[in-house]
Design a protein that fits this description.
This protein has about 350 residues and is α+β, with helices and mostly antiparallel strands. About 20% of the residues lie in helices and about 35% in strands.
Length: about 350
């Protein structure tokens, strides 16, 4: 088994009996959703990206369609993420330092850095035949770590594809006797020596190590943004099978979250996601565990976090269901984006 360990989270490449990941289904705006967004001046039509290398700017925005299908009933929300200015009393805020140790002995440090403000505007819910009586327009916000948002899940996807391709090409089983992982304290020296030798052939770059070390923190940042607003927060909770007894036993603290990589590292077509040629898209399958129990199955569609996709860490699609098959299918898809004025390249 290739064990991929990231701090307090664990990612493992599943070998056999992997569950079926949720599929991405076609989605489009309901008329009522589209009408509400247009009335508010929110872009709904296409993804517009800034020039390569452009830094994030105020008012960069990405519009997501959030759809829940439960018992044959579909409901929609729209979530707009806008890069936002900080108030004077917020400008001194800094992220907490984080050091991660690889199973090959590599150490990756994330020093304190200024936080970034993200304004979040949610509309909904809406149904096929019109707005729900509960439809609202709600603003909220979150502080995020800009480095995690800019690392790029696509780099980790490319690394995972290389590991799997080597294993398949050489017909290795059980991961070939090595593990690649990160955690917040050093691995035993004997394991480090073994893994350093076994993984030398992959030529893992410093950038890949850094992106991999920040994989789960970046994912958590994305979910932090999504969970700040009523409506979207409940959709996330709907597809997470929380072991409430374990949570109560731990004083209500959710401090044991693992992720298992379930494969599915296919390369997608940029055009399927409304992206320009050369903006590669990759799929990553994950199983989330809470206190060791399967809690959610997730399929991600990720790309390079080119502005304004920095706002969502390069995640352009997400499909999630509960592991037991009960409950809804939740799909989140980037439908439109606009960089700050005069920076668009498309």
């Amino acid at each position: 088994m290739v064990a991929l360990v990231l701090g307090a989270a664990v990612l493992r490449a599943a070998e056999t009996g992997a569950p079926k990941l949720p599929a991405f289904i076609p989605v489009s705006w309901f008329p009522a959703t589209s009408q509400a967004l247009r009335a508010d001046g929110v872009a709904t039509d296409r993804l517009v990206l800034a020039k390569e290398g452009q830094a994030p700017g105020l008012d960069d925005q990405v519009t997501f369609l959030v759809e829940e299908i439960a018992k044959g009933r579909a409901r929609q929300w729209a979530m707009v993420l806008k890069y936002n200015t900080l108030k004077p009393n917020e400008r001194a805020l800094r992220t907490s330092p984080l050091s991660m140790y690889a199973s090959t002995g590599v150490r990756v440090d994330f020093p304190p850095s200024p936080v970034v403000g993200m304004a979040i505007h949610v509309f909904g819910p809406y149904e096929r035949n019109g707005p729900s009586p509960a439809a609202k327009s709600i603003w909220s916000g979150a502080f995020i770590n800009p480095e995690f948002m800019g690392l790029g899940f696509d780099q980790s996807a490319v690394l995972f594809r290389r590991l799997v391709a080597y294993k398949d090409r050489h017909q290795e089983t059980g991961g070939g006797g090595y593990s690649l992982g990160f955690r917040s304290n050093p691995f035993p020296e004997a394991d480090v020596q073994k893994n350093r030798i076994a993984l030398a052939k992959f030529g893992i770059t410093p950038g890949e190590y850094r992106a991999f070390a920040g994989f789960v923190p970046a994912l958590i940042n994305f979910f932090v943004v999504g969970s700040q607003t009523p409506g979207v927060r409940e959709r996330i909770l709907d597809v997470v099978d929380v072991p409430w007894l374990s949570l109560v036993m731990h004083g209500g603290k959710l401090d044991d979250v693992d992720f298992e990589i379930l494969g599915g590292f296919e390369k997608g077509r940029a055009s399927d996601w409304g992206l320009p040629d050369g903006q590669d898209v990759y799929y990553i399958g994950l199983r989330g565990l809470i206190y060791g129990k399967p809690a959610v199955l997730v399929r991600l569609a990720v790309t390079r976090p080119r502005v304004p996709l920095f706002n969502c860490a390069g995640i352009v699609g997400l499909a999630a269901v509960r592991p037991d098959g009960k409950g809804p299918l939740v799909t989140i898809r980037a439908m439109a984006s606009r960089p700050a004025a005069n920076l668009a390249t498309r």
